[in-house]
Specification:
The complex is a heterodimer of chains A (386) and B (122). By secondary structure, chain A is of the alpha/beta class. Helices cover 52% and strands 18% of the residues of chain A. Chain A is built from 13 helices and twelve strands. In chain A, the strands form three sheets. In chain A, strands 2-1-3-4-5 form a five-stranded parallel β-sheet, sandwiched between helices. Chain A has a five-stranded mixed β-sheet with strand order 7-9-10-12-11, with helices on one face. Chain A has a two-stranded antiparallel ribbon with strand order 6-8. The longest helix of chain A is centred in the middle third of the chain and has 60 residues. In chain A, 30% of the residues are buried. Chain B has 122 residues and is an alpha/beta fold. Chain B is 41% helix and 17% strand. Chain B contains five helices and five strands. Chain B has a five-stranded parallel β-sheet with strand order 2-1-3-4-5, with helices on both faces. In chain B, α4 links the parallel β4 and β5. Classes of the chains: A alpha/beta (386), B alpha/beta (122). Chains A and B meet through α7 and α8 of A and α1 and α5 of B.
Chain lengths: 386, 122
């Protein structure tokens, strides 16, 4: 095991004389280290780009790049930035000379003729250091992988929890319209079976049929929202643009939502001084208006609601209510998927309306902004290219 | 538990379609129904009714005062504490944990609604 690890230990030996390299090779016979030879400073620098060395043995006297220059260049390469360098020199030791070596990045000196035992002992210290730091590196990498895995698992868990919560909420929303539908249809069946239909007031029957129809529309809106959200998250929602007029879209929505408006107690006024022509997907623009209006009805506290349209370099539509308002900390998250400023227990809906509206507006190249104050009301303003 | 000849029922639910459809189908079946859109509205309606109802059908999750809030009030008010309440919710566990009476799970079927109502109203 240890010998296998020692095989991976590489030592760079740099000397311009082949016989010196040969002596060094012989000195490390049986150690198991891999010795890589370089015959010049330039070759040493080249090798330093390709290997991680435990230690570098560097001859000082070489033509062209000498040992000191080579050492300084090695220090500037990422792989040899901190690799221990032992200078080998035949020159008699002078303090100034030795100092120059240490400045160039040497950690030690060996003088020729080399004592093999001392050489091996010195190098083995650096090899041990190298092996320990490699081991640390490996452990750090393992730790990072484990950390990344646990982070991913945590995110996955969070996403699953959000999806589960959404499914509970969505199924509740889908169940709600079933109660009126089922109660009324069964009542009609009973009335026909007992032949007692004629006992029931005609206006009551009409109202029940309208309520049932309303529930069917409500169910289909919910289903379309679910489909839209899945399309949006996979970028499969496409626009069918055609010339359209904004005010007529708003008027249609106001007509379709008469019962809901009446029920909310809010008075809704449309302020539309001029026609606003544009090139949009009118079905999707209608959806934006519906989502903003139904929010205003839901959170408007029965107080007046104003829808205004304007035309400048862009088309503008804003929906203002004087209801609950949205606190600053909630204002950024309400455009996100499944988010709402109030708990689901208190208000129905999938929490998708503003998310879908914002995405449709972005697909048109427009923008949506919000001004709101808690307990004073909210104004959502949409700007669309013409 | 039954009050003689009482046919008055109070329905408290924030969903207008549920309120209206319960009112219509129960009235077709011979009951008198008052509707309220949340707990507070329910208390107001209860106080204004000339004849005490024989039954309250109560939704739990509503904006404003919810079903729990209403029960808190109703159970502690001598005038109304004896009026039976049937909790009517899509969340079966919440409904069961708060009431000894049978509950109605949404979506509500006509047969369960009429069965439950007949148990308390003449």
């Amino acid at each position: 095991m240890r010998s296998q690890i020692l095989n991976e230990v590489k030592i760079l030996i740099v000397d311009d004389r082949p016989e010196n390299l040969f002596v060094l090779q012989a000195s490390f016979k049986d150690t198991g280290y891999t010795l890589i030879e370089a015959h010049s400073g330039k070759e040493a620098l080249e090798q330093a780009k390709h290997h991680d060395f435990a230690c570098i043995l560097l001859d000082v006297q070489m033509p062209q790049l000498d040992g000191f220059e080579t050492a300084m260049a090695l220090r500037s390469l990422p792989r040899t930035e901190t690799t221990p360098i032992i200078f080998i020199t035949a020159i008699d030791r002078t303090e100034e000379y030795e100092l120059q070596g240490y400045f160039a990045g040497a950690v030690d000196y060996l003088f020729k003729p080399i004592n093999t035992n001392i050489l091996r002992a010195k190098v083995s210290v650096f090899v041990d250091l190298f092996l320990k730091s490699e081991e640390l590196k490996r452990q750090k990498e393992l730790l990072e992988v484990a950390l990344e895995k646990s982070r991913e698992a945590e995110e996955l868990k969070k996403a699953l929890r959000a999806r589960d919560e959404f499914l509970v909420m969505a199924s509740h929303e889908l169940k709600t319209p079933i109660t009126p539908l089922s109660l009324q249809m069964q009542t009609f069946i009973d009335l026909f079976e007992n032949d007692t239909f004629h006992n029931v007031d005609r206006t009551r029957i009409m109202r029940m049929l309208h309520t049932s129809m309303g529930q069917i529309e409500r169910l289909s809106r919910l289903i379309f929202e679910l489909v839209d959200v899945s399309r949006l998250s996979s970028n499969r929602l496409t626009l069918n643009k055609a010339p359209a007029e904004l005010n007529s879209i708003v008027r249609k929505v106001l007509h379709d939502f008469e019962p809901e408006i009446k029920n909310s107690g809010s008075l809704v006024t449309l302020d539309a001084p001029v026609d606003v022509q544009g090139y949009w997907d009118s079905f999707r623009i209608e959806q934006i208006v519906i989502n903003l209006l139904t929010n205003a009805l839901k959170y408007g506290d029965g107080k007046p609601i104003t829808i205004s349209t304007r035309k400048s370099d862009m088309a503008e539509i804003s929906v203002s209510d004087q209801g609950l308002g949205i606190s600053p900390e909630d204002q950024s998250r309400i455009f996100e998927r499944y988010e709402r400023a109030v708990p689901h227990e208190n208000f129905s809906g999938l929490g998708l309306g503003l998310y879908i509206a914002k995405q449709i507006i972005y697909l048109h190249g427009g923008e949506i902004s919000l001004e709101s104050e808690k307990d004073k009301g909210s104004t959502f303003k949409v700007r669309l290219p013409l | 538990m039954k009050e003689n000849n009482c046919k008055n029922i109070l329905v408290i639910d924030d969903d207008p379609a549920i309120c209206q459809s319960m009112k219509d189908v129960l009235e077709i079946n011979g009951y008198d129904v008052t509707i309220a859109k949340d707990g507070l509205d329910g208390i107001k309606a209860l106080s204004a009714m000339k004849i005490r109802p024989c039954l309250i059908l109560l939704d739990l999750m509503m904006p404003g005062m919810n079903g729990w809030g209403f029960l808190d009030f109703q159970r502690n008010d001598d005038r109304f504490s004896t009026v039976p309440v049937i909790v009517c919710s899509a969340y079966e566990n919440s409904a069961r944990s708060i009431s000894k009476n049978p509950i109605l799970t949404k979506p509500v079927k006509l047969s369960s609604l009429l069965g439950a109502v007949q148990a308390f109203c003449a």
